[in-house]
Design goal:
There is one protein chain. β12, α15 and β13 form a beta-alpha-beta unit. It is built from 17 helices and 13 strands. Strands 3-4-2-5-6-1-7 form a seven-stranded parallel sheet, with helices on both faces. It binds adenosine monophosphate (AMP). One of its GO terms (molecular function) is RNA helicase activity.
């Protein structure tokens, strides 16, 4: 056994102690150098829990894990680091592998690590993170397979890939075409598993599970362990250990949440524009409910003089990538987006998230607000709700088991009483989702204008 394997074994044996530094996690020196280059001083909570639990033991066996985690928590490095460590360790033990020679006969890719993601954006972000972490271990190759990008270009990059990050549908297309063989996959990761189920990938996941039967480890990361996620895990994992990191209430403690009740669409627009002029705002994502609303709102904001662009799933992939790049480089200040398009966006300078069109599903609220307050910074998530949205607000509050604090802005207060919006007036509120015992008016925060308002 190599000294690294011994180190890893020691880490697993004491997996319940806390790991204040990356060095204590016993990771490969090339990864430790990369982590230091990236400026990660200490492992985040999910990294402290998941890295030792996912590392191989003295015999090389590695446990299956289900990890509840939110985006922004450092979850990507939490699974990439132990898996890249395992690959680097295996490469030390095995004979050196030569990179494909120019003009050599074309061979299908046979990755050893396969990461599945629900969206192109998340897959591209995960690949970029893997490349960053492997900057001092250039013998390992990372490839990405996502829908919407030219087939030929992806095929070229697949050659000799050790780590493959993919969306399920395009991966199966390439596998059926004989471009990828999945029988060498040792470690399978399902990132945002709940989201993959939402997007209808259950059958694709079952097919990929069957094609990677000889793998030794499966890791599943999900915002929730809802029954459908548990059911998926039961089908594809072996006695997984569950790591629950944050309850819905504990999450997003560094994100200030605010709820504004609006009388109508015009009131909502005025409030949004008021907020967009906030001096504290560096960059923002404004969420729309539909692609049509997304385009219309981006146009309207541009006409009002804001540096805003739209991003949604119906746009060509090239346009989406250029817009995301412009956001990362700070050339765009406001991104108006739909849920799917904004998944996985990781731009630390996003200070504000606006829920202009409310999410269809309460879980999406959690994903949306996680676009701000990234990498240890603080952020503000502002939700603008009309009276007809009150059921959706109740569902979000029930999921998170806490109310979103209500705020008003002087001169832009709603004409209707907040209680009327909430649907708690006489004769209202019966059957309201989430109308449980957790909500107390007294617990609601003061308005932004100072003392609690009376109407
Ligand atoms: P993720 O939850 O994987 O989307 O990561 C969110 C952000 O945190 C990314 O910008 C990472 O580069 C950053 N990050 C990950 N791990 C650490 C760490 N240990 N210290 C500081 N930042 C980190």
């Amino acid at each position: 056994m190599t000294s690294l394997a011994l180190q890893a074994a020691a880490v697993r044996a004491s997996a319940d102690t806390s790991f204040a530094t990356f060095d204590q996690l016993g990771l490969h020196p090339a990864l430790l150098r990369a982590v230091a280059d990236l400026g990660f001083a200490t492992p985040t909570a999910v990294q402290q829990a998941a890295i030792p639990a996912a590392l191989p033991d003295a015999t090389g066996a590695a446990a299956d894990l289900m990890v509840s985690s939110q985006t922004g928590s450092g979850k990507t490095a939490a699974y990439l680091l132990p898996l890249l460590h395992a690959l680097l360790q295996a490469s030390v033990d095995a004979a050196p592998r030569s990179a494909p020679r120019r003009g050599a006969r074309w061979q299908p890719a046979r990755p050893r690590v396969l990461v599945l993601c629900p969206t192109r954006e998340l897959a591209q972000q995960v690949s970029a993170d893997a490349i960053d972490l492997l900057r001092h271990a250039r013998a390992l190759r990372v490839a990405t397979v996502v829908g919407g990008l030219p087939y030929q270009q992806q095929l070229q990059r697949l050659q000799g890939a050790d780590v493959l990050v993919a969306t399920p549908g395009r991966l199966l297309d390439l596998q059926r075409g004989g471009h990828v063989e999945l029988d060498a996959v040792q470690h399978l990761v399902l990132d945002e598993a709940d989201r993959m189920l939402d997007l209808g990938f259950a059958d694709d996941l079952a097919a990929i599970h069957a094609l990677t039967q000889s793998r030794g480890q499966t890791l599943m990361f999900s915002a929730t362990f809802a029954p459908r996620v548990q059911q998926l895990a039961a089908g594809i994992m072996r006695e997984p250990r569950q790591l629950t990191l944050a309850t819905p209430q504990q999450r997003h403690q560094h994100i200030e949440q605010r709820l504004h009740w609006c009388d109508d669409a015009g009131h909502k627009r005025r409030l949004l524009q008021h907020w967009l002029r906030d001096g504290e705002l560096q960059q923002a994502i404004v969420f729309a409910s539909t692609q049509v609303e997304c385009d219309a709102l981006a146009d309207e904001l541009q006409q009002a003089g804001f540096a805003a662009v739209a991003l949604h799933g119906a746009m060509p992939q090239g346009v989406r990538q250029r817009r995301l790049q412009a956001l990362r480089e700070g050339r765009v200040q406001i991104l108006v987006a739909t849920d799917v398009a904004a998944r996985g966006i990781d731009v630390p300078t996003i200070t504000h998230v606006f829920n202009y069109g409310l999410p269809m599903k309460a879980e999406d609220y959690v994903h949306r607000i996680g676009r701000t307050g990234r990498a240890g910074r603080s952020g503000i998530a502002v939700t603008m709700a009309e009276p007809r949205d009150r059921r959706r607000i109740a569902a979000i509050e029930a999921l998170r088991r806490e109310p979103i604090p209500e705020h008003t802005i002087a001169g832009l207060e709603p004409r209707l009483r907040p209680q009327a919006h909430r649907g708690t007036g006489a004769g209202r509120g019966r059957g309201r989702p989430g109308a449980g015992g957790w909500r107390s008016e007294g617990a609601r925060r003061a308005t932004s204008t100072g003392a609690r308002r009376r109407y």
